[in-house]
Specification:
This protein is an alpha+beta fold and about 280 residues long. It contains 16 helices and 5 strands.
Length: about 280
């Protein structure tokens, strides 16, 4: 089976009906600009959605058409993606917004930032699309992700002859290139949650991979700087963003950070003030 066929089949695996309804509601919020909604992340991996925050990507035709406020379109274009909270059907979620053009580009090997291709080298589900053409574009974009990951990682991993270990090392590199709240073992657990899937993807992904041209030192510097920039942007675009950031850090890092009143009132300053403490404690890396 080709890599595109594997991706298409994986995207089509059914999800909980509540997830599908939530995706439909997200798409409806952005009207005719909505092209596809993808479900991914720990809730998908662990088959658990109650009491947790679900992760989605909304793919749109054009940023200007997706927003009533022009400044949101500009922010999305300059520092993609925009991220928003959403609740429906008793479920809480957040969704990131990318244009079809950016989704294709950010899954490809020309992009040093790991943010998108590292996530879509993992399992995801296409839970809503506007038409067959939108589905085909989502498949084409996601089919780049695993080859991009392995191509970038191959020159920097230790050969062990174990296919799963290749993926574990590759994801560990991506985790080091962002500010992440998860513990170090998280990159291995991503693979161990579905080993058969990664065995199936290995050969076709390697066949499509292009050798990486960027060292991971540069990716780490740029990736962490971009994470800080996105964190600052989220304080303006994501209602309740600082509360979510603290919740996620506490959940994944086992910390007990509590926001002070001034931090709730000034989320940008809160995000900046929390960062040195989080780095020193190892809550994010």
């Amino acid at each position: 089976m080709s890599l595109a066929d594997l991706v298409r089949a994986e995207l089509a695996v059914p999800v909980d009906p509540r997830v599908k309804r939530l995706a439909e509601a997200i798409a409806a919020k952005h009207g005719a600009a909505s092209r596809a909604v993808l479900f991914y992340g720990s809730c998908l991996r662990e088959s658990q959605i109650d009491g947790l925050m679900l992760d989605f990507y909304l793919i749109v035709s054009d940023y200007r058409a997706a927003y009533a406020k022009r400044w949101l379109a500009i922010a999305n274009r300059l520092v993609p993606p925009n991220v928003f909270p959403f609740e429906a059907d008793g479920l809480a979620a957040k969704y990131a917004v990318l244009s079809e053009a950016d989704f294709l580009r950010l899954n490809g090997p020309e992009t040093r930032s790991v943010s998108v291709w590292a996530r879509f080298a993992q399992p995801s589900r296409l839970v809503w699309s506007s038409d067959a053409a939108a589905s085909d574009k989502a498949v084409a974009a996601i089919s780049q992700a695993a080859p991009t990951l392995l191509g970038a990682a191959m020159p920097f991993v230790t050969a062990t002859g174990d296919e799963l270990d290749l993926w574990r090392q590759a994801f560990a590199l991506t985790y080091s290139a962002e500010l992440r709240a998860e513990r170090k073992a998280r990159s291995a657990s991503v693979v161990d949650a579905d080993p058969e899937r990664y065995h199936a993807f290995t050969a076709p992904a390697l066949a499509a991979a292009e050798p990486g041209t960027s060292g991971w030192g540069r990716r780490r510097i740029e990736g962490k700087a971009l994470s800080v920039l996105r964190l600052a942007k989220a304080s303006a675009t994501y209602a309740g963003g600082v509360e979510y950031i603290v919740w996620k850090i506490n959940r994944h890092a086992g910390t007990k950070i509590e926001l002070k009143p001034w931090q709730r009132n000034h989320p940008l300053l809160a995000a900046i003030s929390l960062l040195p403490r989080l780095l020193r404690s190892g809550a994010v890396r």
